[in-house]
Structure formats: structure tokens, C-alpha cells
């Protein structure tokens, strides 16, 4: 076995450029597989982390009338909650309203969170007192869409609990930057205390957001949505991305494997005298087949080595500095930051390496298998078989 | 459309029972002058956008303040669009999709054809007497006419506008202006009636400007082209089937 490895190594090094071309394309494929999977894993982790921090918390209780994708339900989707029973839950009240920036009317969703809440990263705690106007927080996308800056006062019109129109001025006290567009676009945040006061919906909420400690999942009028269920959309999107990525890197892998296969076929064809000599010197046909198979699979080992030399510093840098996708990512439905930080887990590296090594070994074995049927005398003479 | 606006803003005055006798008398005279059992009107709605001005023509059939049917006549883009209001329900038929949809929830807050009027502005069909208490607040001169100023304050909780102010011509018993206020006192909408003419013995505004005062622009004009008071309107007009005819 050791002899086979030594021979395979010498044969490959001796083949020169042919070897390095095969290794080159296999390395490229190997790196692309790792990079793309790492990017998707990084995106997945980042999107989930941000979604938990900015929107979902550790699970939610939705009011029985609340349907997240049906704005018609918002009017009735609110109810009182028992403060003692819901310790560890953060109430979020959602209402519909309109604002009038620069003489335009914009329909918005008005959201209220307790001033001292810790469940979400929405900077409600930064909303201080302002004379004559209610302080509100908006996201960067909302600020751009409505052309608003910190300190701007706008008229807000809403309906109170009885459906009566009310209007007042609100002042933009803080603008936050989040990757989660669903807490930003078309939304205005104020303290729950202010929202209760202006709508008359004291001690009412649309959603109760759970913190890490909260375990109970049974409440009247409230349906529990687990964190996994809330994150399902992100998982689904990532899986779709992963499937399309697989097509790309399987094509690349197919090209690389085709090159190895081609080389192996050529080797078996052109090195018949060498094969005959091995057999004449005492190697069994199976050992010669094994030697050629090891030669083929050694391309993948070389590509691991070259891939490590190129990939380790490159991926280390990318994982540390992230990759900027510019403005393209800004308004996607799934949380996507200005920079994505790829994540290269040991599982990813090992599984990618195994895919390349196993597939290279298989395509090496198929042409080498012909050696088993060779006549050693004819092979020594170098006659075509 | 103009007819619906009048219904939305003024017609409920018809049965208004105010505590202050003066206000009641004034409103009854207004009602006598303006309200008919049924009406057929042809009108234009002039919508002033930031870049252009759009004129939409329509023909409306109205019975009381519960039933109305409007068909849009021009421009080509809106031609054939129909709207049916029966009590608190509103349907819209679009010929391009051949679909009838019922508007509800926040869709009712959308503007009608890009105007300053929302669908829900046309949906209020309760009598003002049931939901407001009124008084004559004073007198002044408006557009050269002597007017009474009536203030209506909501007497129940579930009303859209907490306060209404109405300016009524003392001689012709016709409203010249109405303002709608939020609970906080913020003025939300203003309606101005002009080009008052006598039609079939009634004083009637031929032009109504409807303005959402929180928005920029000059508001939306409703211009009355033709009006018939108390015509016979077949019952089938106020059915969903008529939307697709």
C-alpha cells in the first residue's frame, strides 16, 4: 500500500503540467463548493440571528385574530393580557395609521413596544420626552422612503379604539439601521405607553414576544408560534438558494471529474508497457488497478493541499471582513446585511473534502478497472488491447 | 360621485335632531332645499396630481343615503368601472379584469381614483342626529354671503370625525363649507361648495372642492353637469348584477 502511494506520487509529480491542470480545476471546484456553502451558511446564521434580535425573539404569542400576512386582521387583532401570567413576554401592539411627509400621504403600520423592553433591538429606550410631539423611531429604509431625518416633525393620523380619527405631530427621535426590512419599511415605532394612550387600548397587545426564559405555551386568546416556525421562511429561502448553488458546483465538479477520467483513460491506454512491467515484477492486477486508482484519487488530495494553501488565508479574510453586496441586498425580504460574513464550519470542510475525494476516486477506478482484464504479455509488448 | 359626496357630507343633516332649536331649524331648511328621495347625477371629478390634472366623468344613481350606484364614463382607462354601495358594504367592478371585489378593512382608506376622498368617506351612513350634538356657534360672512356657523360634536364614541363645523348660507339655506376635525382638534378635511345655482326650484352647489388638508395640493373638485331630483330608479340598479351589465 505504501509502495502504491509512493509510486502514485512519483508518477503524478512526473506527469508535470497534466497533473497540475487536473489539480487546478479540482482545487477551483473544491474552493467554490466551500465558498458557496460557507456564504449560504453565513447568510443563514446572520439572517436568523438578526430576525431573532429584531423581530421574532424566542417565539411569539399571536392574538387569535392576527394573521401576519393579512393587514385586514390588524383592526381587530388586539387583546388584553395578564401582566403577572405573561412575565417574560414583551407586548407589541400594532395599529394602522397614515403620515403626511412633505404633503404626501403614506399608509404606515404603527407599532408600540414598552420603553424598557429588552426582547428586540428596536431602540425604543432612546425615545426621550419631546414637547408637543410624540417621539418615534423609524428604520433607515422608512427614513429614505419618506425623506425623513432625525428631528423632523410629521403629522400622524390614526383611528382610536372606537374608530374615531385622531391626529397629532410626531418627531423622528431616532433612526435605526437593521437588516430586517419587515421591521423597517412602512413602519413607525413608538413606546407602547404612548400608543396605548393615543389609541385608548390600554394593556392590550397584538403580539407577545417571548424571551429566552419563557417556557409556557398555553394562553387563552393567544396562539403560540415557536421560534423554529417563525424562522421557517428563512430556512426555506436558504434551501432554495442552496439547491440552485448545488447545480452550479455539481457542474464544476463534473468538469473536473471529466478531466480526471480523461487522464485515467489516457494513462491506462498509453502506459500499457508500464502496467505489464508492474505485473511482471510481481504486482497483482488488483494491485496495479489500486495503484492507478490511488493516482486518480491523489489528484483530489493534491487539490486539498493546494486548496488549503489558497483557501485558508482567503476564507479567513472573508470570514473576518465579510463580503459586501452593496445596495442590491438592502430591500430583500430576508434579512441581509450590507456585508455577509461566510461561515466555514468543520462539518462543511470535511463534507466538501469527502465529496471531492470520493467522486475523484470513483472516476479514477472506472478506467483503471480495465487493467484487471489485461493480458500482461500483450501489455508488456505495448500492444493495444 | 358628486352626489355621493353630498350624501357623505351633507345629507345626514336631513334628520339631524339638535338640542339647540336654532341649529335644528337651520338644518331642516337645508334639508328641505337639498335633499330628494332619489337622484340621478352626471358629474366630473377633477383630480390634481403633482404632474397632471385628471378629469373623470361619472353617472350616479342614489336612493336615500343607503344606496348608490356609480358608473365611470371617461377617460378610457376608467370607463366601465362601477361602484355599488349598499348600506355599509361597497363593491367595485373593474372591466379590465371582469372582477367584482368588495372593499373592506384598510382598502376603504385608499383614495378614490387618486382623489382626496377615501372610500370610507362615502361609507358613513348613520344619521348625524344619532351621533352628533350641534349648536350655532356664530355668524360671519363667507364668500360675500352671510352664514351661520354650526358646530357638531360627537355624542357617541364610534364616529369617524369627532367634530364637524358647517357654514350655512343664511339666505339660501345651503352649506357653503364644512370642516372635519380629529379628536385632538386637528383639522383633517375641508369641503367647499361653490357655483350655487337654482335647479328645479332648489339651490344647489354645482362645484364642490374636497380637500384633505394634511396633504399638499389643491384638493379634488366635483363638478355637477346634470341632476334630476326624485326620478324613478329601477330596483335592479342597486344590485350586484348591475355591476357587470
UniProtKB/TrEMBL annotation, chain A:
GO BP, sorted A to Z: lipoprotein localization to outer membrane
Residues forming coiled coils: none
Originating organism: Cyclobacterium qasimii
Localization (cell): Cell membrane
Keywords: Cell membrane, Membrane, Transmembrane, Transmembrane helix
Membrane association type: Multi-pass membrane protein
Protein name: ABC3 transporter permease C-terminal domain-containing protein
Entry-linked Pfam families: FtsX (PF02687)
InterPro entries (UniProt xref): ABC3_permease_C, Lipoprotein-release_system
Transmembrane segments: 20-39, 247-269, 301-319, 348-366
UniProt main location, coarse: membrane
Residue ranges constituting the ABC3 transporter permease C-terminal domain according to the UniProt record: 247-376
Sequence similarity: Belongs to the ABC-4 integral membrane protein family. LolC/E subfamily.
GO cellular component: plasma membrane protein complex
From TrEMBL, chain B:
Residues covered by the Uncharacterized protein TP-0789 domain: 64-245
Domain of life, per lineage: Bacteria
InterPro entries: Sporulation_related (IPR052944), TP_0789-like (IPR033399)
Pfam families from the UniProt entry: LolA_like
PANTHER family: SPORULATION PROTEIN YDCC (PTHR37507)
Record protein name field: Uncharacterized protein TP-0789 domain-containing protein
